[in-house]
Amino acid sequence: MAIYEKSYISIDESIAQQVGYPYPTPKLTFDFPPHLIETCMVHGRPWVHRGETLARFANEFDLRVIVELGVWRGETFERLLEQCPAAKVYGIDRWAPAPEAAAGAPEDWAEWPHEDHLAKVQAIASGHPGRAHVFRMETVTAAALFNTCSVDMVFVDADHSYNGVISDIDAWLPKIRSGGWIFGHDIDWTTVRAAVHDRLGYDLEYGMDALWAWKVP
Ligand SMILES: C[S@@+](CC[C@H](N)C(=O)[O-])C[C@H]1O[C@@H](n2cnc3c(N)ncnc32)[C@H](O)[C@@H]1O
């Protein structure tokens, strides 16, 4: 049976076809320690939720100030809080449809039950007093609330348009300390991939659940 090997991930061919593996492999500038990513089965498919990877990564490298851009209903936010007991986690989301200015973005978020999502995230946060912080605002605006080099990890997962990802990287990169990490979701989107390429170069690793990652020099 053919096995696709991609750095640390091995999955059999039939499953690989179902999930579209292997992705094209970019030039790597770092390796995730193998134990940080484990293949698991979810609904019959191998998959590791982005939050699991981020939490393991944060624990491995002692990343204690974590910002998630685009929280949605808290799937990643909750995992980070539960699995990283030493970390403060800041979740930023507008929880509203995209404004007119964002017309042309790949998603306008118009149909989503944002108030329900916010309520769910606030409930999650209430279980972690002092460590969970929720900001209902634009991701770029929120960057002004953080000092330069004060953040250990940023997870970019809000506006997936090219300009949206560029704006988030530009606003948040200066907030991450040297040796910290910027992660993002959906590198398999053309818009996301182009923005990450143009800002950070294509020397990126990404694993299951279409994560991208870059270590701040
Ligand atoms: C894909 S979901 C985030 C998923 C979440 N990170 C997770 O891992 O489960 C994107 C979220 O980003 C929010 N969003 C999009 N653009 C935004 C912006 N410019 N400022 C704040 N929130 C934004 C949307 O409201 C939506 O809830």
TrEMBL record:
MF term (GO), any: methyltransferase activity
| Claim: Electron transport is one of the keywords in the record | no
What keywords would UniProt list here? Methyltransferase, Transferase
Its transmembrane ranges are none
- Any one GO biological process: methylation
| Any matching Pfam family | Methyltransf_24
On the tree of life, the source organism's domain of life is Bacteria
- The protein's name in its UniProt record: Class I SAM-dependent methyltransferase
- Can you name the source organism? Azospirillum aestuarii
